[in-house]
Design goal:
alpha/beta; TIM Barrel; two-stranded parallel sheet; 8 strands; elongated; binds zinc ion
Length: 311
């Protein structure tokens, strides 16, 4: 009797042990899976954020560099005095402010790197303020981008080129690769919108420090084929940091206008740069409220702002 109950107890203990092991073997992997699942989710979100930043930042790190290390800016009509103290304008200043045809300053809002998820928002704001701007675009073939190119054109903005690939190492590898890339974009924009763009903004600016090709060679090429390139003399600061505050963006643009007649403002149309969109209405309002500045799209009449010019 004693022996069989002991055996039963042992069997029961064994059963419990086996059951515990089986339960553990099921539950532990499930818990691990749940924990890992959460971590994967978190990491995926982080990856998405970083990817969005990367699309603009990897190249704009170089653009940023060129913003702060540019050669002297050439302006054909630069003032050395503050706008209001312009000698030509000392008398009749008030009168001038009320006459739209006598705007002392021409301000050009330029957006690089689009189309992006923000293009429509930018266009909506420009429409609301009845302001025309310039978009230096890259080559994108998705449906939204194709629609964006067309909307830029339809709403009276200037469609400029900013290279098809925006890959510095490819574009600036040789003159041939540069020309091939530009031709591809020019042709593509023509097929897409019917516009044969004559305006170009070099990725990184004409004063970029990454080109393996002598920039003079590219500038001569532009002269031969009737393309004008435009750098900038005011940087909104959105290339330097995707997280720049709205107030800083507005201040950079508005303060940059002082002392200049031709104001070429560099901004970016990029999915990661929401603050540029947030700042845009304030930038426009502040410029318009000056009374001496007119916001225009780049045209054949626009004085080119160029960091380096043909030798
Ligand atoms: Zn760019």
């Amino acid at each position: 009797m004693g022996g069989s109950s002991e055996r039963r107890n042992r069997v029961n203990r064994l059963k419990r042990l086996i059951l515990t092991v089986i339960t553990a073997a099921i539950i532990i992997p499930i818990i691990i899976c749940i924990i890992l699942g959460f971590r994967v989710c978190r990491l995926q979100t982080r990856v998405n954020e970083l990817e969005a930043l990367l699309t603009s930042n990897e190249t704009e790190a170089e653009e940023k560099e060129s913003v702060y290390t540019v050669a002297p800016v050439r302006e054909s009509s630069r003032d050395t005095l503050k706008g209001e103290k312009n000698p030509e304008n000392v008398s009749g200043d008030e009168e001038q402010k009320t006459k739209p045809e006598n705007y002392q300053k021409q301000v050009y809002l330029t957006f690089d790197d689009g189309p992006s998820r923000n293009t429509d928002r930018i266009l909506d704001i420009l429409k609301e303020y009845d302001v025309k701007a310039t978009f230096f675009v890259v080559g994108k073939t998705d449906e939204n981008s194709v629609r964006a190119y067309q909307r830029i054109v339809d709403e009276g903005h200037t469609l400029g080129m900013h290279s098809y690939s925006h890959k510095y190492d490819e574009i600036y590898e040789s003159k041939e690769s540069f020309v091939e890339d530009m031709d591809r974009l020019q042709e593509y924009l023509y097929q897409t919108t019917g516009i044969w763009s004559r305006f170009y903004r070099f990725p990184g600016g004409s004063s970029n420090t990454v080109s393996k090709v002598d920039m003079q060679e590219l500038i001569s090429y532009f002269n031969e084929c009737g393309i004008t390139y435009y750098d900038w003399n005011i940087s909104s600061g959105d290339a330097a940091s995707a997280q720049i505050s709205v107030d800083s963006l507005v201040d950079n643009c508005v303060n940059g206008i002082e002392g200049k007649n031709v104001c070429m403002i560099l901004m970016h149309d990029s999915s990661a740069k929401n603050n540029t969109v947030e700042a845009l209405p304030k930038i426009i309002e502040r410029i318009q409220s000056r009374g001496d500045a007119e916001i225009l799209p780049i045209s054949d009449d626009t004085v080119p702002i160029q960091h380096i010019t043909a030798e």
